[in-house]
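Let us walk through a complete example step by step. Step one is to write down the protein sequence. Step two is to encode the small molecule, coenzyme A, as a SMILES string so that its atoms and bonds are unambiguous. Step three, shown after the inputs, is the structure prediction itself.
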Amino acid sequence: MNTHHPWTTRAETSTDIATIRQITLAAFDRAEEADLVDALRRDPAWIADLSILALDDNGIPAGYALLTRAHIGDTAALCLGPCAVLPRYQKTGAGSAAISAGLDAARAMGEHFVTVLGHADYYPRFGFTRAAAHGVGMTMPVPEEALMVLSLDGEPVPRGVIRYAEAFGDI
Ligand SMILES: CC(C)(COP(=O)(O)OP(=O)(O)OC[C@H]1O[C@@H](n2cnc3c(N)ncnc32)[C@H](O)[C@@H]1OP(=O)(O)O)[C@@H](O)C(=O)NCCC(=O)NCCS
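Step three: the predicted structure of the complex.
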């Protein structure tokens, strides 16, 4: 079902922090990803303008996407995730709205590359392709199709191993 809500998107403000935690807890039905968002908020990798909410036509925050600083080898890049949508709003475009807005904001900031580790049948719609095809990998073994990368401006993706923010732990 896609009810085509006219989603609006914006960067988080200090009053959204509890809401973002609620969305992330509900979407994943566990605390790990919500705790990760809160740990990233205290990490130097945090970029306030790239913590994005999607709100429905009543102004209710339903979707969330986060981009934080990462590196591919020595090249600055962004890591997309966690992405989360309140269960009752899933598959109605909130995730896509938040992710697209985050990618647009990153492009406007002059960022070049974004990595994501997630559903292989979801992220290609935003232009992500398999990281392995670009010689991009992780230190930890992951399903090859789950690790994807995007060039925001057509610049060739550098080869290398992704280095994540410390808050991600040993991935
Ligand atoms: C994954 C998630 C962020 C997508 O956001 P969304 O608002 O539900 O998705 P959208 O409405 O933008 O897009 C709908 C599409 O996403 C697909 N999709 C939704 N959840 C998916 C999932 N878990 N795996 C694969 N595809 C998924 C739908 O099948 C639909 O595909 P279609 O357009 O080809 O029919 C959201 O469903 C969510 O929070 N899920 C639970 C937490 C999660 O898995 N987060 C991402 C970790 S990588």
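Step four is interpretation. The pocket of coenzyme A is lined by residues 27-28, 63, 83-85, 90-96, 118-119, 121-122 (CB under 6 Å).
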